[in-house]
Amino acid sequence: MAITNDSEARAYGARILEGERVRLRALEEGDLPALVAWWRSSEWAVLQQLIVRPRPTSVVEDQFRRWSQSEKPGEVGFCVVDKESGDLVGHVTLYGASLPARSGTLTVMIGGEFVGHGYGVDAVRTLTRYGFREMGLHRIEIGVMAFNTRARAAYRKCGYVEEGVRRQAVFHDGEYQDQVILSALAHEWLRA
Fold first, then answer.
1. What is the mean pLDDT of residues 174-178?
2. Per CATH, is 6-191 categorized as 3.40.630.30?
3. Every domain of the chain and the residues it spans
4. Which band of pLDDT confidence, cut at 50, 70 and 90, is reported for residue 41?
5. What pLDDT is recorded for position 43?
6. What is the pLDDT of residue 45?
7. For residues 158 and 170, what is the distance between their CA atoms, to the nearest angstrom?
8. For residue 79, which phi and psi values (nearest 5 degrees)?
9. Which residues are CB-contacts of 23 (< 8 A; sequence separation ≥ 6)?
10. Taking Cα atoms as reference points, which of 37, 58, 39 lies closest to residue 47?
């Protein structure tokens, strides 16, 4: 639906970074200790990183700063906060989108203590909507370890479709693991 007046434009702007439970906002320096702790937790790293490799605090802080700059076309990164309390619960990024394909990759990290409360699903839906409606993307993909059944179910709940498997693409626990690729296409996702 097209915006037809300034009040509709303001209403759209007020909600574009809000979901049902979460709000996406810019990174603040005070967010870094929690983000670093979540990223460095080997219990959760095995689900989201290609290799469990704790790195120095300053390196991880710089990584989140880079992911959150939102300066390059086709790349944005946001902190995820609980809409009511304002508490930090995670981080989401869309990256790699460029012309002519307009296809980006979405990543999400929810702090371990907040997993299972609907924050991840709402954050993925909110960033996906932003990617399609504000960034003009055509396709968004997510890669997930095949053994991460909880995340795969959450992404499907968000409207993503499992489209393929990168066979034995990741090495964990002495074995090669498959990675599942899920995607959403703008015309399908916005229609649903």
1. 91
2. yes
3. 6-191
4. confident
5. 75
6. 67
7. 24
8. -80, 150
9. 17, 80, 81, 82, 83
10. 39
pLDDT tens digits for range 135-157: 999 999 999 999 999 999 999 99
Provide the token pair at 121.
Answer: 């699903």
CB atoms within 10 A of CB 69: 12
Instruction: Give the ranges where 134-175 is alpha helix by DSSP (H).
Output: 149-157
| Structure-block tokens of residue 83 | 């809409």
And the tokens for 174?
Answer: 């002495």
DSSP 51: S
| pTM metric for this prediction | 0.92
pLDDT value of residue 39: 87
- Token readout for 137 is 């993307």
Cα(135)–Cα(132) distance, rounded to whole angstroms?
6
Q: What is the DSSP code string of 143-154?
A: EEETT-HHHHHH
Residue 101 identity (one-letter amino acid): A
Q: Phi first, then psi: what are they for 86, rounded to 5°?
A: 80, 5
Count of CB atoms situated within 10 Å of the CB of 143? 17
Peptide bond into 100 cis (omega under 30): yes
Does 174 or 132 have the greater pLDDT score? 132
Kindly tell me if the per-residue pLDDT of 48 is higher than 80.
no
Beta bridge partners of residue 77, listed in sequence order: 93
